[in-house]
Amino acid sequence: MYDTLGDALLRRGSLLALCVAVALLALIVGFIVSESRLPPAPGLSLSDFLFFERWDPSGQPPKYGIGHAWVATLLIVGLAVALATPLALVIAVFLSEIAPPAVRSLAEPMLQLLAGIPAVVYGFVGYATLVPLLERWLPTGETILIAAVVLALMVLPFIAASAAEALSLVGRDLRRAGLSLGVSRWYAFSRVTLRKATPGVLAGVILGMGRGLGETLAVLMLAGNSPIFPDGLLSRGQPLTALIATDLGESAIHSERYYALFSAGLLLMLSVIAINLLVLQIKRKFIGAGRN
Amino acid sequence: MPTNSRLSAAALLAFAAAAAHAQDASIRVGGSTTALPIISTCAAHFMEKYTTWDKVDPAAGKEQTVVYVTGGGSGFGVKGLLNGTIDVGLVSRDLKDTEITSLNQPAMHVFARDAVAIATNTTNPLAKAKQGFSSAELAGIFSGQMQQLSALDSRLPSKTMVLLTRDASGGVTEIFQERVMKEQRLAAGRLQFPSTAALIRKLETNDAAIAFVSAGAVGQDSQLKMYAVDGVTPTQENIINGKYALNRPMLIVAKANAPAKVQRFVEYVLGDCQATVREMGFVPVRAVR
């Protein structure tokens, strides 16, 4: 009797908790959708808003275009992931293939620690070290490049951890079967383990990309927060997250600027959701393939 | 008018709680976020000096003195006063005629002025070559049409100027756009800083940087140089008498016939609090006691 009551409470309780969490998520998504207007202002076409118009809400007449922010976001996240992935792969291979258990038990928590450092700390360290360094040659050290380098450090632990997990998920028997055929360790790794783990590693890379898209504070500090179309890696820029953080405090509720920022947030949210769905899809395939 | 929705929502919650606890034993102040740091410091001093209301006004009761201060933006400073959410409004601009009418001839006082200074650091080549700029030159620089130092003066090197501004939440951007840029747009390549302190740090270390920034923040900094605009230097005198055009009033507004407590607080801001106005980097409008 007592057990069944406890069981029922646990079942109902956890169901309730799940419902609350899902409802909360739905409310957030719903709110952002309901506060967005595409395009956000009359007389502004969708393509101008997304691609061509500049961002100058305090000029006369005000202009609302988020193309510059998209370009900055894509450049910074793309470069950061490109820089972090090779390093993360090497770390993952070391952790899953080479490291003795003692080293692994030390290195894995370190990697988690790296993931737990607050963004503002990364941003500040970059601001105090890399920005003055670059300023020896450039007018300002705040650049897309520096933002991407620091962001690479921030997404590195995410990519490395998922890649290591994917590599160690490949069955030990499969690996041993390879080795027993007399091939070298490298051959077994590159032809068997890596091939089998590729979808998992890819999921890690995409996860890192999603993490990078949402990062705000560090890129705001390091990219210069200039609402300009970046024309290269040494240009300044203002990623979408920085644009929203900078401007939302000053937008009157239900003004054109407010709609424009919520629409930018909606697009950012949709891309992060799309990325997560992609990761789920890849993982599902990977696990399905692993069972066969 | 810029409003900060999150801030005002938080303020309303705070007020609801405040109203439930101490209905008439407190006064509520809100509005301009530029004025917020000054007034919250003043309110803290006020509460320290007069611990109970009877020390402020002998006719009042012995309840503890409580002054709530919140932001919400200049617009909220007027709206909140109208609908009774606050007893004292803070507004960082002149009141519009319609606002004065709807508030029914409120008691309003300028308690400080906020000026925009043009500044570089002292090692910038501009610091030796120039004492001031014309409005047209400033519009040229900050719109990005004049990018090199040599465009201003042929004797200067052809070095690219770095433009520093506060983000849009700094009231200085509004004044600068209105009085200097007018129809022109601020250059997209400008660096935007979330706080005046961060901007000043950058200005101190970058020899190519030029900024428009709250004058009070530059005043005491020996590493920085302030420039005249259209031949007028931003001294306290020129700011108060209006010769230095890049400035705006900061108003404290109460309803006509406000309770004695509210009137005493306004008097305190215009009196003892003027020292705080200066400490915070703004221009006091009365003699500092």
Can you characterise this structure?
The complex is a heterodimer of chains A (292) and B (289). Chain A has one domain: MetI-like fold (Orthogonal Bundle). Chain A has helices at 2-35, 46-52, 67-98, 101-116, 119-134, 144-169, 172-180, 185-214, 217-222, 240-247, 256-291. With 292 residues, chain A is mainly α. Chain B is elongated, with a radius of gyration of 21 Å. Chain B has 289 residues and is an alpha/beta fold. Chain B has two domains: 5-106 and 255-284, 3-Layer(aba) Sandwich (D-Maltodextrin-Binding Protein, domain 2), CATH 3.40.190.10; 115-240, 3-Layer(aba) Sandwich (D-Maltodextrin-Binding Protein, domain 2), CATH 3.40.190.10. In chain B, strands 1, 2, 3, 4, 5, 6, 7, 8, 9, 10 and 11 form an eleven-stranded mixed sheet that branches. The interface between A and B is medium-sized, with 30 and 32 residues.
Average of pLDDT of chain B: 85
CATH topology of chain A: MetI-like fold
Measured distance between first and last alpha carbons of chain B: 34 Å
Please name the CATH architecture of chain A. Answer: Orthogonal Bundle
Oligomer class: heterodimer
Biggest interface: chains and residue counts?
A-B, 30 and 32 residues
CATH classification class of chain A: Mainly Alpha
- Overall structural domain count of chain A: 1
The count of helical stretches of chain A stands at: 11
How many strand units of chain B? Answer: 11
Largest sheet of chain B: 11 strands, mixed
Number of strands of chain A: 0
What would you say about this model in short?
Chain A is an all-alpha fold and 292 residues long.
Secondary structure layout plus pairing:
The complex is a heterodimer of chains A (292) and B (289).
Chain A: H1 2-35, H2 46-52, H3 67-98, H4 101-116, H5 119-134, H6 144-169, H7 172-180, H8 185-214, H9 217-222, H10 240-247, H11 256-291
Helix pairs in contact in A: 1-11, 3-6, 3-8, 3-10, 4-6, 5-6, 6-8, 7-8, 8-11, 10-11
Chain B: H1 5-21, E1 26-31, H2 36-49, H3 53-56, E2 66-72, H4 74-83, E3 88-91, H5 97-102, E4 107-121, H6 125-129, E5 132-133, H7 135-142, E6 162-166, H8 171-181, E7 191-193, H9 196-205, E8 209-214, H10 215-219, E9 224-229, H11 236-240, E10 247-254, H12 260-270, H13 274-279, E11 283-284
Parallel strand pairs in B: 1-2, 1-3, 5-9, 6-7, 6-8
Antiparallel strand pairs in B: 3-10, 4-8, 4-9, 4-10, 4-11
